[in-house]
Design a protein that fits this description.
The chain has 9 helices and 10 strands. With about 270 residues, it is α/β, with parallel strands linked by helices. The protein has a domain of about 80 residues. The strands form 4 sheets. A 3-stranded parallel sheet has the order 3-7-8, covered by helices on one side. Strand 1 and strand 2 form a beta hairpin. Helix 1 runs parallel beside helix 3. The longest helix is centred in the middle third of the chain and has 22 residues. The relative contact order is 0.11. About 5% of the residues have low confidence.
Length: about 270
């Protein structure tokens, strides 16, 4: 999906004129939840998609760093064109056609090829761009692979983690931050997951971000001497970690409220799969 959006944003290819319909409303197959009640006409879908591609282009041209989280490997394709959708046709809108639509679970080679091409496209638009990869610690809640969801989730995350490491190894402008490991490793005993063992808690997000900004401070910040009362001199690190973690922690409840309101395509797939 990232590769597709960057191809469209860069002008390498044109977005396909595909739209899904349900009960007289129209939906974007590549952003099915962007308007929960759909659009009034196909032209509105195309116009909104054009606005998004322009925003992606502008963001890439202006950015210093692209932070991208790899989420899952399962996808649904248009067999003839190879275009991939954000969700299985017929779940949120549209109709599934077995002669036209197929399920694909990307392996290492396919995932690596797409991510490498996406990064190359982004850096052609902006040669100074650096890329920071992470892997989502949120496990799958449903799978179309026919496997048990636990093994399907393990496979998906393993492929993504290996691809991220390969990209970091071969590309001096690509790095990896281990938010996935921080949340999922046995050493933390699952303490950063909500009782559903899927949603990451606000404190887990805060811990990851504090770790991230502490690393940035250690690598890039400077230490200065500060004079305290009574002539005491102490060293203080001036870095980005000082303000941001507190803000994240203060907004923990807002983040949890937003998570509850978030429409998850995987849960839709699970609900309508039968």
């Amino acid at each position: 999906m990232l590769h597709q959006w960057l191809q469209w944003a860069s002008g390498k290819t044109e977005p396909p004129q595909i739209v899904w319909e349900k009960e007289g409303r129209f939906y974007d197959p590549f952003r099915p939840a962007v308007e929960l009640n759909g659009f009034a006409a196909p032209e509105e879908v195309f116009a909104s998609r054009q606005v998004t591609t322009a925003a992606v282009y502008r963001a890439l041209k202006e950015a210093d760093v692209l932070v991208f989280t790899l989420g899952l490997t399962e996808a649904w394709q248009d067999i003839e064109s190879g275009i991939e959708f954000a969700i299985c046709p017929g779940v949120a809108a549209g109709e599934f056609d077995a002669a036209r639509h197929s399920f694909v679970n990307h392996g290492f080679q396919s995932t690596y090829k797409n991510l490498k091409s996406a990064v190359q496209l982004a850096r052609r638009l902006n040669p100074r761009l650096k890329v920071l990869l992470t892997v989502s610690p949120v496990p799958l809640t449903a799978t179309a692979s026919g496997e048990h969801v636990l093994t399907a989730s393990s496979l998906s995350k393993s492929v993504l983690r290996a691809v991220a490491d390969q990209m970091k190894t071969i590309s001096p402008h690509v790095d990896y931050f281990p938010s996935y490991e921080i949340i999922t490793q046995p050493a933390f005993r699952g303490m950063f997951f909500d009782p559903n063992m899927r949603t990451v808690t606000g404190s887990g997000v805060g811990f990851v971000m504090e770790s991230f900004f502490s690393d940035q401070a250690a690598a890039f910040s400077k230490t200065v001497k500060v004079q305290r009362p009574y002539g005491v001199i102490e060293e203080k690190t001036i870095g980005p970690e000082q303000a941001l973690p507190k803000k994240i922690i203060d907004e923990e409840q807002d983040a949890e409220d937003a998570t509850e309101a978030l429409l998850c395509e995987e849960e839709m797939l699970n609900a309508f799969g039968k």
